[in-house]
Description:
With 80 residues, the chain is an alpha+beta fold. It is 61% helix and 18% strand. Strands 1-2-3 form a three-stranded mixed beta sheet. β2 (24-28) and β3 form a beta hairpin.
Amino acid sequence: MIVTATEFKNRLGQYLDAARTNPIVVEKTGRKTAVLISIEEFERLTKTEDEFWAQKALTAEKEGYVGTKASMNFLMEKNV
């Protein structure tokens, strides 16, 4: 569903309810500027992103990433 910012402002409660099942795209001056989603969808997306970056970190370590402790030691040596 796509609504104007004015419509969104005037009917906020209605769109809060609607966002529980479908994203609400808000347009301002003819441009899409924001999306209202349910808290459940937000949490799902956040969890997915966290899992993605955790996997990227594991892959980096396996491919030779030195890890946090070694990185900090290296940085401390360079600051001396």
